[in-house]
Automatic annotation (TrEMBL):
This is HTH-type transcriptional regulator DmlR. It comes from Vibrio stylophorae. Keywords: DNA-binding, Transcription, Transcription regulation. The keyword DNA-binding applies. SUPFAM superfamilies: Periplasmic binding protein-like II (SSF53850), Winged helix' DNA-binding domain (SSF46785). The keyword GTP-binding does not apply. Residues 1-59 form the HTH lysR-type domain. Belongs to the LysR transcriptional regulatory family.
Amino acid sequence: MAHIDDLVLFTQVVEHGSFVSAAKAQQMTTSAVSKRISKLETELGVQLLYRTTRKLTLTEAGEVLYHRGRDIQHTAKSAFDAVTGFNQALSGHIRMSVPTISGELLLAEAVADFCNQHPGLTVEMSLDNHFVDLLSEHYDLVIRTGYLEDSTLIARYIFDSRWLVCASPEYLASHEAIQSPKDLLRHNCLGYSYETGGTFDWQFQQNNDTYLLKVKGNFASDNAAALRKAVLAGHGLAYLPSCLIYQDLQAGTLKEVLVEHTNKVLGIYAVYPYTKQPAKRIQALIEHIRQAYIQIQPQF
């Protein structure tokens, strides 16, 4: 079977126009190059080149192989270039947008640390839960939780965020017990108005099937941190990301309910404009952010 190395060598012979020039470029002997091309022709069962003392000419089969081989060579070079220099100094400016929860929890510190590691780099970070328009608003990178609908953007999966239903011990002690999701219909449920499925449409599972339950309540907000404060004050229940209330659960100031029924998990993604080769500083920052999430994995 023909080897990729021989295919790459063949494309270089064609591009250099002779065995001699290709041999010099590859620091090989001319006879070694000639033997490998002959071997490639034998393995493929076709003649690739017409050889004369003055020049090389591609056969029809050689023409096809050259164009396909050139694509492979360029793809390989692009792949190597994508990781070359990851440990080299990074420079330039990055404008990014991140969710308020992740921004306050870990990304502000993680991104500032990334800047300190690369003195030639500057980052402007905006905290915003709404999905910004990367192109018109000139963002280089956006971190978002949820689903990507714009096919002109590239999304790299980073992590999963688990959500759960919670309330304060005081609220639970003074209200009817909650044993199934339907019991929530008799409770004050605080709504997250940025929820894509609906402010008061809460997701549950039964027998491995997922369904939405429409709850009701007297307060809603597009800020999950505001809902957390309302729940801590004993005003009702809320469906919140685990990372936001992790410390409250550990301290016992909030309690999780319906543990066996909740299954809401949203992916966290790094999103950037479509490009064949994103800048190394963007790739490096995404990896740095991914590691920051992994370090506090239990909170998610």
